[in-house]
Amino acid sequence: MAQGFATIQRNQQKKDSGYTTIFEKITSATGGKSQTFNWYRNTVTKIAESFKKDPSKIIRNERADSKGTEEEEDENILRKYPVSGHLYMFEYKAKMKYLPYYDAFPLVYVMKATPDEFWGANLHYLPPKKRILIIKKLFDGRIDIPKSCFHKYLTDQIDGYLLDLASSEWDTAILLPLENFVKNIKGGTSKFPYKKEDVWDETNETLYDRIKARRIIHGYGKQSDKNMVTSQW
Fold first, then answer.
1. pTM (whole model) above 0.85
2. For residue 96, what are the domain limits?
3. What average pLDDT does range 171-180 have in this prediction?
4. What span, in angstroms and rounded, lies between the C-alpha atoms of 74 and 19?
């Protein structure tokens, strides 16, 4: 597994910059070298500890990072809306009426998007080692993901912006322990934690019922899209 994980690592050590995001901290810790799965898992877990109670801090830090010069920024970009073929992190407040539970801070590979909604695979529904296999296939241009990972998301239920993750950061993102599954009780408004291990067990029951397709990547057509968030802060 460690050797397989090394084959998808694309991080390159960068010069120290003024503001450091969680992704920059982890990249710096690699020393510019490929590391084993266990090294990544332990290092990412340690660095991410301060974000577990407030995962949205990652996006706030990225927003602060985007105010610096281009040389000081990491390669992640804040977006107002998603497009197909990209991997995003975002804070989400689902309508709970028909959901037994949901992930309040999903990590979603988007397959289809419209202005009002999008459909994609939340990789948090899989344990980290299985996420690695998904990412390796995506880099090879193939989608091969369990159906139970796929969900529809409403754009107006996103709290803030989406963090469009650079492909060089995917191997870090899939190991961040930031899945935040919650449920409500008897239709109430309060949310209660739902164990991620239970979610992974449920996904494993239908692991071989999968969606397979060729990966199609859509781009953001205008350069102004890159700056449309930072100009408002």
1. no
2. 2-216
3. 92
4. 10
